[in-house]
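I'm curious: can you give me some protein's one-letter sequence along with its backbone structure tokens because I've never seen that pairing?
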Amino acid sequence: MICNEVYRGVIVWNRVGKIRNPQTGRKVPRVNPRSEWQRIEAPHLRIVPEELWQETAARLAKARNANCGWKGVPPRRSASNAASIAIGSTSCNNSRAKTASW
């Protein structure tokens, strides 16, 4: 969410294209090269001031450089994934039944 440029008043089109997988016949999304992206200024959509956006971008860049193994945006964790990790990690003292803790 913090990397979504709509919050700074920029709409980005053509970021992702779909290419047909020859083995399965299904269309799979692929990120297009940045040179093909189309950026449109939309100041009426801005909700984050430019100064704050730049400060946040600098902090994110610094964090990415500090953690050498992390490139780009960290993987997203879905609610179902988070729940499956937590299930069985705790138990109720009264019944010893497994519970999920989120």
Remarks:
- The beta strands are 10-13, 16-20, 27-31, 38-41, 90-91, 98-99.
- The longest strand covers residues 16-20.
- Residues 50-66 form the longest helix (17 residues).
